[in-house]
Specification:
mainly alpha; about 70% helix
Length: about 475
């Protein structure tokens, strides 16, 4: 009641000079009273009454801002300064209707003020669509990218493409985020195919990228199709070959150095790498494609020769493993040479193949177990592989090839070769290691007995004694 009386006094004493009874006031209380005051351009009084009575002041501030900014200005500078003053006041009063005010200003031909108010809008979901409404797609795209909202980026991108066509492409390609979204959209859409073909004339590296994506999809499709019983693997393999041939054609059309200007292509290519991968050199890329086509050709030949579909989609290393499993060491050696496989990778391939076939004797030949020569891939690879197959007795024969005695001790424990561990400690004069070893097996009297037996079974080497003498 007191607040209403104060409002009635304020109305009476103001320039409006509005006299009314309490009953009249109650009939106008709320939006109707503020609406009448706004029509009379008494924005400050309307704001005071709404704020004092606890009503929403958003409409009042919006009308005030429009009144301030739609009046005639002598210059653009004056219009911008007034807009900045309005923004400051709206921020001060915690009003956030910038986007809505901006659209109304644009309709009234106040473009500069509208842009400044949209710049002040902090909610991208409000800001970007309004920028598009006032025909500012470039700024809208920039704000969408800054926000990180892919839906807004796509909306701005489609507006640009629809209104500017191919002229929008340089802007879309200037940012890695919009570039990725555009290329992804173009990959699956048929709507703007002509636009895309025109773009590929000046950016062949993007055509290469899309062809690679298509190849990867074909490859994934082949993997899924091969799980079906009646799948025709030859047709599926031919589809992959056709896709990689398209990549080869695209690579030849590339402008030298084109890849170096396209971050999206470099980011996507690692998924397609088989050997060395794509680079900024078109010649290197062409070699990569040639090797991949050669790989597909080898896969096809080997499937036909051995009737083994595991060769399909196999990497070079996997193909070598399968060749060894089929006993074709000569073919495996040829693949090693033609694809530049390292000795280490080839050794791993043979170890994997022999393990799969349970050819334990061939594993010992590969690891040269009877001699002191270290395997190319290290003795630990053989020990771990054999232990995984539950062959502790065979694994312990490789322990002496491990150079570090601490690592040897760990493998002795894994192989339960207590006697060998004790002998190794004595041979290298390591009583501290012997103590640690016994602590590790505390509670197992039989293991401790074997460790002592190993320690007592050998003499300490002369080299160790000499080292102690001069220590």
């Amino acid at each position: 009641m007191t607040r209403r009386l104060r409002v009635l006094n304020a109305l009476r004493k103001s320039k409006v000079g509005m006299l009314m009874s309490q009953a009249q006031f109650l009939s106008l209380e709320g939006d109707r009273l503020s609406e009448r005051l706004l029509q009379m351009c008494h924005h400050q009084l309307a704001y005071y009454i709404c704020d004092f009575l606890g009503f929403n002041t958003r409409r009042v501030m919006m009308e005030w801002a429009l009144a301030k900014l739609t009046k005639p200005f002598f210059s653009v500078t004056e219009e911008k300064q007034t807009a900045l003053d309005v923004i400051e006041k709206l921020n001060e009063l915690k009003q956030n209707s910038f986007a809505e005010i901006a659209c109304k200003l644009y309709v009234k031909q106040k473009k500069h003020a509208a842009l400044l108010l949209l710049e002040a809008e902090k909610v991208a979901l409000q800001q970007v669509p309004k920028l598009l409404d006032i025909n500012q797609p470039e700024i809208a795209l920039q704000k969408a990218v800054t926000s990180g909202d892919t839906d807004l980026i796509f909306t701005a991108m489609m507006y640009l493409i629809s209104h500017q066509g191919i002229e929008a492409l340089p802007l879309l390609m200037s940012d890695s985020t919009t570039e990725k979204i555009f290329l992804l959209y173009a990959t699956f859409s048929e709507i703007h195919r002509e636009l895309l073909m025109e773009h590929h004339k000046t950016h062949p590296e993007h055509k290469t990228y899309m062809d690679i994506l298509n190849y990867l999809r074909e490859e994934e499709g082949v993997k899924q199709s091969l799980l079906k019983k009646n799948s025709n693997w030859e047709i599926l393999q031919q589809k992959k070959l056709t896709a990689i041939e398209n990549v080869a054609i695209s690579v030849k059309r590339e402008i030298p150095g084109g890849f170096s200007n396209s971050a999206i292509v470099r980011n996507a290519l690692p998924h397609a790498v088989v050997l060395s991968g794509f680079s900024t050199s078109s010649q290197t890329n062409e070699n990569w494609v040639r090797l991949h086509m050669q790989l597909l050709d080898e896969q096809t030949k080997l499937v036909r020769e051995y009737n083994d579909k595991r060769f399909l989609n196999a990497s070079v290393k996997r193909m070598i493993v399968l060749c060894h499993e089929h006993g074709c060491d000569g073919v495996a050696g040829r693949l090693k040479r033609e694809f530049g496989v390292s000795d280490k990778m080839h050794c791993w391939s043979m170890l994997d193949a022999y393990t799969t076939m349970s050819q334990w004797g061939l594993i010992d030949q590969l690891g040269d177990v009877k001699n002191k020569n270290k395997p190319v891939i290290g003795a630990s690879a053989f020990i771990n592989t054999l232990l995984a197959c539950g062959r502790q007795e065979q694994a312990k024969h490789y322990i002496h090839k491990i150079p570090q005695i601490e690592q040897r001790m760990e493998y002795y424990l894994l192989c339960s070769d207590w006697e060998g561990a004790g002998a190794d400690c004595r041979r290298h004069g390591e009583p501290d290691l012997l103590t640690q070893l016994k602590d590790r097996v505390k509670g197992d009297a039989f293991a401790v007995q074997l460790i002592d037996k190993g320690w007592n079974s050998v003499q300490e080497s002369g080299a160790v004694k000499l080292a102690k003498l001069f220590a």
